[in-house]
Amino acid sequence: MALACVAGLVTAVPAAAGPAAGPPAPGSSGARADTAVARWITLVTGDSVGVDATGEPVRIVPGKGRDGIPIRIERTKGRTLVLPQDARQLVRSGRVDERLFDVGELNTSQYRGE
Question: What is the pTM of this model?
Answer without folding.
Answer: 0.70
